[in-house]
Specification:
six-stranded antiparallel β-sheet, elongated
Amino acid sequence: MSGTDLAHVLRMWEQDKASATLGIELLDVGVDHHDDGDLGHAHTRMTITDTMVNGHDIAHGGYIFTLADSTFALACNATGRTTVAASCDITYLLPSRLGDVLVATARERLISGRSGITDVTVCRATDNAVVAEFRGHSRALRPNP
C-alpha cells in the first residue's frame, strides 16, 4: 500500500459485500503521483469455484467482469474522490476453469474533470496468461453541499 491516505477506498472495500461474497481479495491499492495529478492502481485476486462455472465447464463471464469491475472501483477511488462507473466494456481472451486463480490489475490512465479512464487486465495466476481486458469509464460524484 502507498503512503497516501487510503481510508476512503479501504472503507468502501470493507462495505463491498458483493466482492466479499465472491471471495475477491484485495492485494494492493495505492496512488501513483505524477506531475499532472494522482492516479490510482489496485490488484485483486479471485479463485474460480464450482458455483462460478457454466455448462461448458468454464467460468461465467459475469464473474470475471465482477472481478475486473471491483478492481476498477478500487483504483478509481484510491485518490479519495467518490467515483462510480459511467460505462465499462470487457474483452474475453481465454476461458477460465474451476480452480483457476485470477489476478486483476487496474491502473487509472487519465482523469479529465470529473471523468476518468481505468484499464484492468485479468490474468491466470499460474502462467500469467491474459484472460480478459477491461476498460472502465468513471465519473466522480459531486461532493455533498
